[in-house]
Design brief:
- By secondary structure, the protein is α/β, with parallel strands linked by helices.
- It contains 8 helices and 12 strands.
- It has one domain (about 5-295): TIM Barrel (Alpha-Beta Barrel), CATH 3.20.20.150.
- The two termini are about 20 Å apart.
Length: about 300
C-alpha cells in the first residue's frame, strides 16, 4: 500500500467548472477546497484529454499546480480502452471514451509511453489503465490480454511507475471477482487495482462486502468513489455519494482495518444538482459524512 494517510482527491475529468478544475475560457485555476488533501487526479484540462496536452500546456498546468500547492495523485489515462483486435466488436466500443479521447489498438504502445512521460512530468507514480472494451466471451482472448498487461507493467516498472487497472463496467475487468482473477494473472508489483465500487455495482456485483472480499488487499493501489441507484426497471444511474445503494461506510471501515494508505478519489459522474460544481460539492459533502460515520476522518 502507499505510505501515508488515506487522502481525499478530486477527479479533474469533466467540464472545466467541475471539481474546481482549470477553467477553459479564462485559463485560470480555481483552487481546490481547503478541506481536500491538496491532490487532483488529471483526466482532462482545457477541453483536452490529458494525453493530448502539448508542452506549453503541460508547463502551464504544472505552474498552476505549484501555485495552488496541489499534487497529482494519478494520470487518469484512457490506455487500453479500445477494442481487442481480431475479437468481435464490443457492444460498448461505439461509445468510445467521452472525455476527448479516441484511439486505436495500434496506438496503445505509443499511448502507454505517453502516459509514463506524463507521470514523470506531473511527479506522480500512478497511471490508470483499462483492459479493453468488454467482450461477451473473454475466454478465447483472455491469455493474450493478460500478456499485454504483463508487458505494460514491465515497461512501467522500469520507470518506477505503477499501472492502476480500473475495474470498469464497460471493460473486461468490471467487478471485484474479475479484478481478483486479473491481479492473479498479472503478478507484477507495478500492477495494482484502481478499485471502483460504483463500476462493480453497475455490472451487477455487490461491491461491498462481496466484491471487496475477493480482492487481495495489498494489490489495491487506488480507489474511485461514486454512488449508484438501481431503478425499478433494473437499470442503474449514478447518484451523489451517500444517496445510493453502496455500503461505503462498511467499505471505508474495511479499508482502514485492512491498512489501506492510498487515495480516495471522488469521481463525479452524478450531475443532479444545479451545476456540475454544485453536484461535486454535494458529492464531496456526502463522502466526507460517510468517512466520518466510518470513523476514518
Amino acid at each position: 500500500m502507499d505510505q501515508g494517510p488515506i487522502s481525499l482527491c478530486p477527479h479533474s475529468r469533466c467540464q472545466s467548472s467541475q471539481m474546481r478544475s482549470p477553467t477553459t475560457s479564462a485559463g485560470r485555476w480555481k483552487s481546490p477546497q481547503k478541506s481536500l488533501a491538496g491532490l487532483v487526479e488529471l483526466r482532462e484540462l482545457w477541453g483536452k484529454n490529458i494525453m493530448k496536452l502539448d508542452s506549453k500546456e503541460i508547463e502551464e498546468a504544472r505552474r498552476l499546480l505549484e501555485r495552488y500547492r496541489v499534487r497529482v495523485s494519478s494520470i487518469a489515462s484512457p490506455i487500453f480502452k479500445v477494442d481487442w483486435p481480431d475479437a468481435p466488436a464490443s457492444k460498448y466500443s461505439p461509445k468510445r471514451d467521452q472525455f476527448s479521447a479516441s484511439y486505436t489498438f495500434a496506438q496503445q504502445d505509443e499511448l502507454l509511453e505517453r502516459g509514463l512521460e506524463l507521470a514523470r512530468a506531473f511527479n506522480t507514480t500512478n497511471v490508470r489503465i483499462f483492459d479493453f472494451w468488454r467482450l461477451d466471451d473473454q475466454a478465447p482472448y483472455r491469455d493474450a490480454i493478460d500478456r499485454k498487461l504483463i508487458d505494460a507493467a514491465a515497461k512501467a516498472g522500469k520507470r518506477g511507475i505503477t499501472l492502476l487497472l480500473e475495474n470498469e463496467h464497460t471493460c473486461n475487468t468490471a467487478t471485484g471477482a474479475e479484478a481478483a482473477r486479473t491481479l492473479k494473472a498479472v503478478e507484477s508489483p507495478y500492477f495494482k487495482l484502481n478499485w471502483d465500487p460504483g463500476n462493480a455495482a453497475a455490472q451487477g456485483e455487490v461491491p461491498f462486502p462481496d466484491g471487496y472480499a475477493l480482492i487481495p488487499k495489498t494489490r489495491i493501489g487506488y480507489m474511485h468513489c461514486k454512488d449508484i441507484i438501481r431503478k425499478p426497471d433494473g437499470k442503474t444511474e449514478w447518484m451523489a455519494m451517500g444517496r445510493g445503494i453502496i455500503d461505503y461506510v462498511g467499505q471505508f471501515r474495511a479499508l482502514k482495518k485492512d491498512g489501506y494508505r492510498g487515495t480516495l478519489s471522488l469521481e463525479t459522474h452524478w450531475r443532479g444538482a444545479s451545476t456540475p460544481e454544485e453536484s461535486t460539492r454535494q458529492s464531496m459533502a456526502g463522502m466526507k459524512e460517510l468517512l466520518r460515520r466510518a470513523e476514518v476522518m
